[in-house]
Amino acid sequence: MIALPLPKADVLIRRDAVHAGLRVLLPEGCVITDPTRLKPYETDGLSAYRQMPLAVVLPETTEQVAAVLRFCHENGVRVVPRGAGTSLSGGALPLADAVVIGMMRMNQVIEVNYRDRYAVVRAGVTNLGITGAVEAEGFFYAPDPSSQLACMIGGNIGMNSGGAHCLKYGVTANNVLGVRLVTIEGEILELGGTHLDTAGYDWLGIVIGSEGQLGIATEITVRILRAPEGTRAMLAAFEGNEVAGACVAAIIGSGIIPVALEFMDRPAIHACEAFAHAGYPLDAEAMLIIEVEGSVAEQDWLLGQIKEICAGFNPISLKVSQSAEESAAIWKGRKGAFGAIGRISPDYLCMDGVIPTSTLPMVLRRIGEMSVQYGLQVANIFHAGDGNLHPLIMFDANDPASMHKAEAFGAEILCLCVEVGGCLTGEHGVGVENAI
Amino acid sequence: MRVQFTEIELEQQRRVKSAFDPEWLLNTAKVFPLQANTPSAGPDDLPRAA
Amino acid sequence: MIAPDDEAGIAAAICAAVANREPLSVEGLGSKSGFLRPVQTARTLSTCNLTGIPLYAPQELVVSARAGTTLATLEATLAEAGQHLIAEPPDYAFLDAPAQTIGGIVATNLSGPRRIAWGAMRDHLLGMRAVTGRGEVIRSGGRVLKNVTGLDLCKLFAGSYGTLGVMTEVTLKVLPKPEATGTVLLWGLHPEEAVRAMSIALGSPYSVSGAAYLPQEAAMVMGYERPSTIVRVEDFADSVTYRLDRLATLLGRFGTVEILDTAASLSLWRAVRDAEPLPIQPDDAVWRVSVRPSCGTSVLRAGQSAGLFGYLDWGGGLVFLNGPPTGEAHAAVVDAARHANGAWWLLRAPESLRRARDAVPHEAAALAAIRQRVVAAFDPAGILNPGRMFAA
Q1: Facing residue for A184 by CB, picked from B25, B30, B34
Q2: Domain stops at, among C145, C176, C207
Q3: Nearest chain B Cα to A71, which residue?
């Protein structure tokens, strides 16, 4: 079990005074203290853990955020920032003595500048909402975490979120130009701006991915990019993890960098196919989704090269998408992977380790052995281009023994990731889950 | 975090945290191991056992 | 000069300096020791003997090099596998030493024209080892392409000019070298027209990886007769041919379009990368200004009004300026950069100007206070490159 700190007794005693103090600072309806209305905030994407907060505030402006933080600082009250609450590592899990600052009402796009290719948005705008605001002009915001429909850019700043396309386009830190950050003392800092390189220390770099440890981002300036002429995906199915892993290395070694290169193992293929009917090969042990972009001729050429490389690894099948619809179906399976696993197991833990890609076959073999040892099923999804491995460990949260086993299994996987030269978390963040 | 970082490395990260948030009020109990989830200098009001 | 050949030696030197309260100048080969503010210390600690490439995995797009490895050595190793450093780090024409170390490149976060499409050195710094001003060895990041474990100290060290610690090893993401490079060249545009043309190119779906503008004087240094606007594409040969053709059509309304082949493009962009279009005299000052692209022209014009020469890279978002190292010229650059809400660096100047003026923008008071605490967290005794970036 994950241990949380003891609440500050002096703060709990002052509960009513804290509530009253917050109400003075914010408009009516922006302070939530009623237990039934606090309930939706008691957990996030790591739903096995729950804790009712002292209060939830929903500020509408940067100045209100500053006022709340100044108040909390003066009164020694802990603060938990929250975007959409999609964190898979418990990054937005409340504490009993803490005020949750929910950013969902700061959901405005402030400015879009196509000439200089940036957009200024408030922290509560969803990741996909940014692309939604600029796609009519053919632009997009590149980082695309699987939760992009719901997750907010403020939370992406906290976790330095990535996505399936970061092999080419990078993660949040590579796509943000400026952040308006409010410190715990209520100071409003302007970090970066609309220019590419910042002088002095790289405050953006240390703040992005700091999981709300350094301040609260209220306004963010992101780079927007012109979308490619087109994209197309292909599926390559293999008899084993080793050959699929070797094929990934061969593609990268050839000098081709696909915009996305995703790996799924047999359990993941089956779960996703049952969910999305994407035409995934059910007879395969391992499958790659490979996506390229450019004009139709460029796509044809790149996919031709990749097919030729794949052919050297005895593929069970190679299937190039013939239309935008087919490509969308291929991605629907992958992006719906978590929901698909949810259909076959009441609960699952999604791990987020990163490994050197060359160690994939060995790591998957070890995970398979652990799966037998713990008696728990696991499906593996892997951003093969960048080494980010998401084992989904299936368990039953109603059975405490099952949950303990799942956590121990997950911890052992992460230790293995570090042991082979990787790290604990590639895009979900440390949160409470990995802090130990 | 202890699997990946040495005590010296964690302490250095904690110092950066303290430079922004001296009393450790922001998102307490996240990122850093609980035993270490406290200002690098100053009173410790957190339980020692995790 | 202390130049240990291992990390333990660096740590020992820093511990001794802390014990003796004796500040150190930190450098690799000293090629950029004239950048930003002057550091006056009795002793210099160099990483130049920390050489070697302990890890290179081309199929995982990752390389680790000890800090003192020269840029040339590293690039040669990568070239053997057909790869390169993504940010295209510059080898400026006005450096104080013939060679640069990779540690120095990362510590100054200098990137070339490709930065606009593919990111800066800081974006590709996956991991590092460093000795802090406490004499302690720390690692941050790692050897994998994605990592959000703990605070990203790598970003803080990139561009920190050796004021937080001495990096002993850096791990970088690398990419395959493109098969072909091509350039679309437009003649005779005014700065504003040029930035407009570059904006159209960069806002097109043709993956432009460089966009620069050389005004009359800069063009003449390069042997051209008229102002030149250049747009680069890098990829597989067929793609480059196709995209150059598309870009030529797109930019046709700005006048006659010329296309440069791979060989001509490589040498032209190398020159742009290395600030060769600046007509630099030995005692000149050099400024580098980062603004949003459409503001580049106002900074360029302000510099020209103050008697400076310059050119634009990053589609207008990076302005290089050079000229007499006067306080007036410096004030003109700083004012123009501030007006555009941009960042600026006094890259090179005689010591008198560097001592008297800021070398990077002032921070607001609240951020300056945090900065002082962060610096003290790494270097409480203030012994590493004191005063290099900020006077206080």
Answers
A1: B25
A2: C176
A3: B25
